[in-house]
Description:
The chain has helices at residues 37-49, 65-74, 120-134, 149-152, 156-176, 190-195, 222-229, 243-246, 261-277, 281-290, 305-315, 321-329, and strands at residues 8-10, 17-19, 23-24, 54-56, 83-88, 90-93, 113-116, 141-144, 182-187, 204-207, 232-235, 253-254, 257-258, 295-298. It is α/β, with parallel strands linked by helices. The protein has one domain: TIM Barrel. An eight-stranded parallel β-sheet has the order 3-4-5-8-9-10-11-14. A two-stranded antiparallel sheet has the order 1-2. Strands 6-7 form a two-stranded antiparallel ribbon. A hairpin with a 2-residue loop joins strand 12 and strand 13 (257-258). It is globular, with a radius of gyration of 19 Å. The N and C termini lie close together (7 Å). The mean pLDDT is 94.
Amino acid sequence: MTISLATRRRVGRTKLELPVFGFGAAHIGELYAKVPETEAVATLAAAWDNGVRYYDTAAWYGRGLSEHRLGGMLRTKPREQFALTTKVGRTLSRPENPGTFDRSPWVGGLNFEVTFDYGYDGIMRSYEQALQRLAIDSVDALVIHDLDALFHEAHFERHKSDLVATGMKALEELKASGDIAAIGMGVNTSEALEQVATLVDLDFVLVALPYTLLDQSSLNTGMATCLERDVSVVIGAPFASGILVTGSGGEAKYAYAAASEEVQARVRGMEGVCRAHGVTLPAAALQFPLAHPAVVSVIPGAVGAQEVVQNIASLSAPIPAAFWSDLKEQGLIDAEAPVPANGQGI
């Protein structure tokens, strides 16, 4: 079955349907490099003009910059024509000393201090601030952002308790009132997918790294649990934060850092299979996760109009069945991982 940009999949047990391909807006928040305003505008225009109708952002992306830029485009479009998700759990405020404020890890972004708050008031404040930055009065879903030990260390248990005790009440109220159609959680690790995402009743999880062409370690754990619970999955980093689009070598990045030699070697093996079958690595990376029955959408980022166009082309590029078979035979992907069933693109 060939899937186009117009194809939608239902999220969990909700009425929300998301396009199988969307735009992840982290990069226009200036993580790795500053993005001129003209380039950000052109990138978003290319996404819209080429049929992308699902957009995801967060307060954390550029400390508010991504939401401002994305909203600047989407507020001019008919609201019923696109799906929009953003994230809660962080509120933004003016720093005490703007002149010396450190925006890291963002290379650019805005001068706003971040406060984590997963309780009732924090969730509601996150939501209200997001609407103001977006200049749009509704979002389709809210995503609980970065609730894992990677970010919180000593405060992790307190933040989990806040979410369970009162934060979920805020999200459930917003869903019951029709303000949002679904509740999600963003996770960065296999452990969070298995242990944190199961603490509360979710409609979907937005998975950054635990399920990509490079890593299927969650296949029989967290991903299987999502299927059992009827929780859908959105793949937020199908290029594994860079290396599956840039390829191996040079300054390739994996998991938001320089790729290790072990990861580089694995990617070089994939590149060899790609050459043998005339397949591009980005096409394989985008199409692979959509074959999993829990996955409803992939949302790669892009900086530059051409990257958007290339990603869209990769979504439908023909990939022969023998390509997936060779990856499995060479131990480059899990032998049990679902793969696209035909050679005409996903």
